[in-house]
Amino acid sequence: MGIDICLTAKLPRNAPPEEVLSRAKAWIDQAARFVLVAPTTMLPTDDGSMIAASLFPQAQDVFVTASAGRLGLEARTNFPGPGYHDYVCTLAKGLAAHLGVVWEADDDTEYFDTGDWSALRGSMLSWLRRLAEVLLGDTENASGIALCMDMRHGFKVDAAVATPTGPRSRAWIEQVAADPMSGTDFFAWWDKGLTARTLRDRAVVRMWCDVHWTRPLTPESTGVLKDVNSCLEQANALDSELDLPWPEWREILGQIESGTGERPASRAIVDANVRSGAMPRIGYRRAPVVHRLPGWELTLPGSLELQYGDEWVAFDETRSVRLTLMRASEDSAEERDPEEMIREQNPRAKLKIWTNGQAKFAAHLEKIVEEADSYHSLFVIGSSGPCLCLATITFVEDSDREWAMGVAQSIKRYSDPS
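^ that's the sequence the OP posted. Answer follows.
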């Protein structure tokens, strides 16, 4: 249930698809450089490659494909909203001009062809009303339903729904169902262009969903903090009367200073605008977060940073969690016993054994002593049918033993409803 725009175009004769995509990627990197959340990436497909461009926090990627003489562009725009839809259309038209192609549009709002801004906003409000009506049947006793969120992470909130712009109550849903104009605060890009409100709301989305609220340990997390600061600086410069999240902004500046040693130029104006006693309230990652991997999930402090690769890693300065997912055998559905697997490597290991749902677990804690330092390592194996989850949880302080076991016992099988 969303608002989509799908564009197709005929490629010039003999135009190699990979060359077209390379040109498209270079052009998007330049044209969208002020809004890109992350560098554009080339992803493999069954018949070639495609470009994935992240243009707004929590928005689904824009995809550009080229194969068999056709160029395609697809985007879902109901979040962040009409301003984002307008931006994608403008970007797509610029890309077409650069590549010398003509788009055929299948736009749920018809905005690509009509340019009717009022009708576009109306389409977004109609979508929001329909969504609210659906939610009224789902949220009577539910809490924390994720709405337009990255489903790899589950945020724990004491509210009916969690949205990229913050949690919303059932009363809010009822009000939107009756009058969708009352819910425009859901759309983080409601205006046309990069207005002060849009820049502020982009920062607010990142504060809710992306900021870990601790000293940054990686260039990626430092980049998130600097993006938030830059957006708020620009918003304040465009409209000095705009209501801004001053306490959270001050906290962001402190984390930038702690992580980089830099003192942002906005420090003085932020300090002057924070009211006495005002406390930060924005940020899903101030609470524990449920992380979903293919077939498995676990709960961790929201302050831990993440890295993706051959193994999934979450960490802070003294703790880490590493997960590797695999099958016991590619040719067999036989379930392996996690206790036996650990004892094969360490027959004298003192094991903790438990079950969680349909999965069996075994864990072994040991102290690792190295030349420079020492730490504790909790090795965990989870087994469900032929599927295995191997976790290594490390920590330095003895006081984190209970935390480590709590993380291990939060691991369970996860069924993706899609």
